[in-house]
Amino acid sequence: MEYNTQKEELKLAEYGRYVQDLVDHALTIESKEERNKAANAIVQIMTQMNPGFKGNDELQQKLWDDLFIMSNYKLDVDSPFPKPEPKNDSPAEKITYPDQGFKFRHYGKIIEDLIDGARKIEDVEEKKALTGMIANLMKKSYLNFNRDSVNDEMIVDQLKEMSNNELEFADDFKFQHTNDILSSSPRRTNKQNKGRSKRKWKK
């Protein structure tokens, strides 16, 4: 299992690892039109996580600013607000989240928030694009939980269940290959763990 402490530090921790993964994915999209769709979908998810920001232009600008910060100011999209300039970012205001139980714990509460946000998106193509991104994040999260195997059909079934069958995939959707996910998420071997333990306690 890969622990968050082994991953790159989050730029804005209050949005969670999976929103950062969405931003990282958006950076890999070659088509600017598709990047724009992804960026707008991500901001909608961020708005769902901060309901008080909805309908307030000043607060919406903060969400777009945060989006660019999470991309290291590299995301090339059409924003409704001026793109912020790189600066020494001050600590962001901490956001509290409701402590509620959920069925698929290995996906984390953020995945449920992403699904809830996607269900509220009206644009069909944008919703389908985000659904595919969420499905791949679910697969990645499942492999962090159980690296031995993963069934794509199971991920689809669980996504449908979690969304009350309200989310659909694009016709050309394909899951990211398992080997590609595992190769980008190396785990520490037993030998490495033993060596780390010895160094820790050696005086």
What does this structure look like?
With 203 residues, the protein is mainly α. It folds into 2 domains: 8-96, no CATH class; 104-177, no CATH class. It has 8 helices and no strands. It has helices spanning 16-28, 32-49, 57-70, 109-119, 124-145, 152-162, 178-183, 190-201. Helix 2 crosses helix 5 (124-145). The radius of gyration is 18 Å and the shape is globular.
Q: Low-confidence stretches at least 5 residues in length (pLDDT < 50)?
A: 1-6, 97-101, 188-203
- Helix fraction, binned, reads 40-55%
Secondary-structure element order, N to C = HHHHHHHH
How far is the first residue's CA from the last residue's CA? 29 Å
- How many beta-strand elements? 0
Radius of gyration: 18 Å
Main sheet specs: none
**Helix segment tally:** 8
- Class based on secondary structure composition and strand pairing: mainly alpha
Please render the helix and strand layout as text.
Layout lengths: L15 H13 L3 H18 L7 H14 L38 H11 L4 H22 L6 H11 L15 H6 L6 H12 L2
Helix pairs in contact: 1-2, 2-3, 2-4, 2-5, 4-5
Task: Write a short abstract of this structure.
This protein is 53% helix and 0% strand.
